[in-house]
Model the fold of this input.
Amino acid sequence: MGIFMGKEIEIEERGRILIPKELREELRLKSGQKLLVERRGKEIVIKLPVNKNKFVTELKGCVKKSKIKPMDIKKIWEKL
Done:
């Protein structure tokens, strides 16, 4: 995976932005795919959403002696 150096883009009249083709291809982004947008101070961060099931699966066994079970975390996520 390569490093994508910042490229200046323009905000369209309706507030839309275009993610450069080379970045879309590298990240395998598809039309209609959902992304998360968040603000960090004066930055706008666009990122892929976390897959809840994959997160819970990878969480199993990583925190020893925890009082919270991975399936309980999954239930909490489902309420969000």
The CA atoms of residues 31 and 71 lie 32 Å apart. The chain has two domains: 1-49, 50-80. The mean pLDDT is 82.
